[in-house]
Amino acid sequence: MSGVKIVKIKDYKENVREIFSALNFKIVSGEKILIKPNLVLPREAATGATTDLDLISALIEIIKENKAIPILAEGVGYEFDSRVFSILGIDKLVRKHDIQFIDLRRSKTFFKKTPSPIFKKIELPEILKEVHKIINVPKLKTHMLTGFSCGLKNLIGLLPLKERRKMHLFGLARSIVELNLIIPTHLTIVDASVIMHGKGPAFGDRIKLGYLLAGLNVFAVDFSAAQFLNINPLEIGHLKIAKKRGLIPEDQKRQTKTEDLSVVLPKNRFYNLLYWLVYFFDYLQEKITKKTSIAWWHRRFGMRPKLDIKKCHSFPACRDCLDICPVGAIKKETGLDFKKCAYIRCLKCFEVCPYEAIIIKGISRPGQNNG
Ligand code: SF4
Ligand code: SF4
């Protein structure tokens, strides 16, 4: 049995209990349980970009009710910085539940030898040595590089930059499969409350769905999640490899509840080549200068908001973008200071502007249904 459970969201705590019971997932008192959500960028769950904090809260409460110890861990994308967590409200969530939060970009690491041809010696966060179980809580969305992002792809957030870069250089599809064989997860609960399609994972269009998908086998969950979006899983590189390697249960059945859903998959050949070149250049550069330039490439060529003063009829009378910017990057005297915005790029100003005076430059511009 593939054992993928699809539930309509009513109340997250009720839903999580239903999932635990249906999958016979047990929490033992005293266990340390790592929760790995998708909180890699500063856009709320309602945009389709990140895991819903209410779902994470429900999970934390249920783990605590079972007298186990929840630990939340995430590492933001390299084009962002750790302020992402306070912008998303993680600081408050951690205080409210009084739990440990690990910023994986700053955590200690260790090296582990593996039989994987890609990760012969992989650098992993120390916390993996401590925890008894991992609950993977990804967001369901499309992805410019991998086509599709769910539980398997979500584990990349555990890795330091060098390992992420290695994945790009060796091919993301193969590396994602290998990574999930090295780090087994015990339960995957996919947040499909609002999904992102088109130019995911950061700036695509959103669709409200209102479902959770869950299972003990992350390969089976991702296969079902693709089918749930009416995507042929075998069009997704890492799922095709997983299927070939016998990691998808043979009895995996299509159980979509979304026949009318039309999800746009990003065309990713150009982006894959571009990213490969950037990561290759970065690898060479680091060998010579000991410095990495990934974030610079993202800032220079990635999505960049710009204030079009001609369209901004109300500036400075209207203060909407000034008030909403979490890092004070917009001032009435100086307009939008991209240096302050560069590591955040949350698009809140773009979403709030009533006059479409915030325009977006660069590749991976947001879709129509994004504001
Ligand atoms: S300028 Fe706009 S995109 Fe940049 S951080 Fe501020 S609100 Fe977010
Ligand atoms: S929200 Fe739009 S109209 Fe208002 S100040 Fe900002 S750019 Fe101008």
From TrEMBL:
Taxonomic classification: Bacteria, Katanobacteria
Top-level taxon in the UniProt lineage: Bacteria
Pfam families: DUF362
Record protein name field: 4Fe-4S ferredoxin-type domain-containing protein
Domain 4Fe-4S ferredoxin-type: 303-335, 336-363
InterPro entries: 4Fe4S_Fe-S-bd (IPR017896), DUF362 (IPR007160)
Gene3D superfamilies per UniProt: 3.30.70.20
